[in-house]
Amino acid sequence: MSEESLKSRVENWMVKQMPIIQMHGGTSVVREANPETGQVVVELGGTCSGCGISNITAQNIQRDLYYEFEEITDVQIKVPSTGDMGADTVEGGRGGDLRFSTDSAEHF
């Protein structure tokens, strides 16, 4: 068996297990997958930004990654609408800085 990196295995898993994200115009990228610490960071984007069920999607991905990969001990799923990404991301494509979900977006 070839020694494929944890990041590659998680990326391949995301493509196979989560096609609904792409079907709905969302994107996902594995930002970090450290086999020594067990930490994995996945970022959702595209139409996931501002989607009402993106937090449920994130929870499902997190749960399934723990189940599928025994070496994973910490999973962080970053979704723009929850304020987990940097302020250079525009909220829902409408412009302006990303707002945390507890803050008012102050849109007209």
UniProtKB/TrEMBL annotation:
MF term (GO), any: iron ion binding
Top-level taxonomic group: Archaea
Region named Disordered: 80-108
Residue span, NIF system FeS cluster assembly NifU C-terminal domain: 19-76
Membrane-crossing segments per the record: none
Pfam families: NifU (PF01106)
Gene3D superfamilies the record matches: Fe-S cluster assembly (FSCA)
Protein's name in the database: NifU family protein
Organism from which the protein derives: Natronocalculus amylovorans
